[in-house]
Amino acid sequence: MKNALYWFLVGASLIFISCSTSRTYPPSPKKINYYRKKITDNPSFAQNLNLNRLEENERQAFTYLQAKNFENVGNAEAACDRYKYLAEDKSFPNAQLALIKSLKVCDYLTLNVVLLWNTSLKKIEPAFNKLFLKNSIDVALKKGQFKYYVEFSLAYINYLDTKEQKEKYLLKVRKRVFNNEYQYRTKELLKKVN
Questions:
Q1: Rg of the chain over all Cα atoms, to the nearest angstrom
Q2: 109: part of which helix (H) or strand (E)?
Q3: Same structural domain for residues 99 and 153?
Q4: Looking at the structure, do residues 180 and 159 belong to the same domain, yes or no?
């Protein structure tokens, strides 16, 4: 009986451990700086590196640094691929940040963007909110989604410091919006700021 209980607990423990979806921790700052330097200084470094031999957290950090580098040099397609990959990796602690950054570099279909805004990006971590709003404003304007453009813009003014900046920003938003309903909302908010 004791033997059966022992094996039951061992089996249950193994199942519990294998089913956990814990997040990874970042590699050491020394390792991150090493990868950052190698990625920027030597473009062929990534081709020669076997990602399968890296620890999971090192692979994630490397992929994120690579995506940032591609974004900085203007290779939006490569940056998009990496950000999307990381966004789908639920063990990556900054998966939501990767998804938010993908808004800037990926050319999503309008339907996909609206779907993201209403599902995966419905609840944003506070630390990422300003970047989310900024990227979403740009995408909404580019895709002609004025409802979302106004909604995100109205939330974004909370991140502006002075009354003058808020007024200037709201006037810019108001000029870009053609729909009277949205112009009215920005006009009312402009009155409240004054």
A1: 22
A2: none
A3: no
A4: yes
Q: Is 89 helix (H, G, I), strand (E, B) or coil?
A: coil
Same domain, 67 and 141: no
Domain region containing 177:
108-194
- Residue ranges of alpha helices (H) inside 89-161 are 95-105, 110-118, 129-143, 146-156
Does residue 18 belong to any structural domain of this protein? no
User: What is the pTM assigned to this prediction?
Assistant: 0.78
Both structure tokens of 100: 């938010």
For the chain, helix (H) and strand (E) counts, in that order, are 11, 0
Instruction: Tell me how crowded residue 145 is: count the other CB atoms within 10 A of its CB.
Output: 18
pLDDT at 194: 61
Q: Using the structure block, give the residue that is written with the tokens 């002075």.
A: 162
Residues 6+ positions from 89 with CB-CB distance below 8 Å? 60, 95
Q: Among 70, 105, 140, which residue terminates a domain?
A: 105
Together in a domain, 144 and 174: yes
Mean pLDDT over each residue of the chain, to the nearest integer:
84
Per the structure, the count of domains in the chain is 2
Give the pLDDT score at 25: 87
**Short-list 173, 166, 93, CA closest to 127:** 93
Residues found in the chain:
194
Lowest model confidence (mean pLDDT) among 3-7, 129-133, 138-142, 169-173: 3-7
The answer to whether residues 60 and 23 touch, using CB atoms and an 8 Å cutoff, is no
